[in-house]
Design brief:
It is built from 13 helices and 14 strands. Helix 1 crosses helix 2.
Length: 475
């Protein structure tokens, strides 16, 4: 087929890529650990929405760290595999060497051509990985470039597959860039390889406020790069060519891309704000459960990068501990809202848009977050309900194990009970479970809507509210 190497590596090959036939992770230990976590949050593990959660979480974790799991499985259940990078290099070799093709370049003359000696870049490769500091998923936009040599080029899709191999493990952005770059350089043997990663990590909200302020940042952003051969020095002229080709796509990483970045504040759990005293104390049994999950995935919990990770993950989970919402709302609402006259004609529509929220998907224990828009009618001249009260309602329903449909309904019904019935709620959210498992649809967003009272039959009122959201989005 034109490949320079047949790729005989002792594993079944599909399109030149090794696959493990019949592999299935033993998930019962992970499922038992997840049950401990759910019980630690005060949840009933036999509740309808949670019965299959342990199995779903185990599957999501095995998918999200599948290269780690596969390499660890080869060592057997007793001997723990310690994430040795040589195993990942072998996987990269399986991918690349079955897809090296001859392509004649400029043997004589001055200059570079696309066959050999010319720069080749694959841009905008969407990946995800799991942060080794807090065990939550983060998104990656990967850009890979190389300069072919030896009159051979690699199938372009294999660049993405190699990057995915190293992403499917507990990772740090700089190490991910370095490992992808090193593997491609070792097995393609080009004149040079460059990797640029643009990473997005969910930002931990400040829970002490009782709500999320409008200035809350959704993402921690970081750009890192790695280069070998012609790209080894970040001051090399060829980096300018690489970055210029990225700019064609509106990608500007020149100011932030540094190979020697320490990334000291990459994970929000390690940032200065996270180092302040926390009221949430982790439960020993929950920490032990997370540690057992790491072992089941083939990781070494004593690896220095993972020390403290179970503790940090449990602190994150405890934010969503089941609480008595009614007691909290009574304390907030009483005395802070002017009573509305229930029998008066409601003539004015009031809007509160872009109320930020966070929640935790009860099916996969992965976060989802976004904004809520709330509209309602109240008597002309009457003071509308304070935005802070709506923020508190959103906050308290959000910070628990949830599904978006239920969250939308609960907020709408609570606001309706306070205001007399005519309420519309629209929720827009991004779900980590849509990114880090299954279909892996980065950039997807889910919208839900609840219509109560007049909004359920008054199309003009409903459309006026929806247009207000659209106007805010485009302004």
């Amino acid at each position: 087929m034109g490949a320079l190497d047949d790729g005989q590596f002792g594993l079944e090959l599909v399109d030149g890529v090794s696959v493990e036939v019949g592999f299935e992770l033993e998930t019962p230990p992970i499922e038992e650990a997840v049950k401990v976590l759910l019980q630690g949050l005060g949840e009933d593990i036999n509740r309808e929405g949670l019965r299959k959660t342990p199995a779903r979480v185990a599957k999501a974790l095995s998918e999200g760290t599948r290269e780690l799991v596969l390499r660890g499985q080869e060592k057997g259940p007793i001997e723990r595999w310690n994430a040795d990078s040589n195993s990942y290099r072998q996987k990269a070799k399986d991918i690349v060497q079955g897809a090296l093709f001859p392509e004649v370049g400029l043997d004589d003359g001055v200059g570079h051509a696309g066959g050999v000696g010319g720069l080749v870049i694959v841009r905008d490769l969407d990946l995800f990985s799991y942060c080794e500091s807090c065990l939550l998923p983060f998104q990656v936009k990967c850009h890979v470039g190389y300069v072919p040599s030896g009159q051979r080029v690699v199938g372009l899709s294999k660049l993405s597959r190699v990057a995915d191999v190293f992403a499917k493990r507990l990772q740090d952005p700089q190490r991910l860039a370095d490992e992808v770059c090193s593997a491609l350089n070792h097995w393609i043997k080009p004149a040079g390889v460059a990797v640029v990663l643009q990473c997005l990590h969910i930002h931990f909200p400040n829970l002490e406020l009782g709500y999320l302020d409008s200035n809350h940042q959704e993402w921690v952003k970081a750009s890192v790069c790695s280069g070998e051969g012609l790209f080894e020095s970040t001051k090399a002229a060829i980096w300018s060519d690489f970055l210029s080709l990225l700019k064609f796509r509106g990608i500007n990483v020149e100011k932030t891309c540094t190979r020697d970045s320490t990334m000291s504040c990459w994970c929000p759990s390690q940032s200065s704000s996270a180092s302040t005293p926390c009221k949430i104390e982790p439960v020993h049994q929950m920490v032990a459960a997370v540690t057992s999950i790491l072992k089941s995935l083939g990781e070494d919990p004593l690896r220095k990068e993972l020390l403290g990770s179970p503790d940090r993950y449990v602190r994150w989970l405890k934010n969503f501990e089941k609480a008595e919402l009614e007691l909290m709302l009574n304390g907030i609402v009483c005395g802070k809202m002017d009573p509305l006259q229930p029998n008066c004609s409601k003539e004015e529509m009031h809007l509160e848009l872009n109320l930020a929220f966070w929640s935790l998907c009860e099916h996969h224990l992965l976060p989802f977050h976004g904004v809520m828009h709330i509209g309602y009618f109240c008597t002309k001249g009457t003071n509308p309900i304070a935005r802070s009260i709506l923020e508190s309602i959103v906050h308290f329903y959000g910070f628990k194990l949830q599904v978006q449909e239920r969250l939308t309904r609960q907020v709408s019904e609570t606001v309706s009970s306070l205001l007399g019935g005519d309420v519309i709620v629209v929720v827009e959210a991004s779900h980590s479970c849509m990114v880090s498992r299954g279909i892996e649809k980065l950039g997807s967003n889910t919208a839900t809507m609840a219509l109560l009272g007049r909004f359920s039959f008054d199309d003009a009122a409903k459309n006026m509210f929806l247009q207000s959201i659209q106007n805010t989005s485009t302004s």
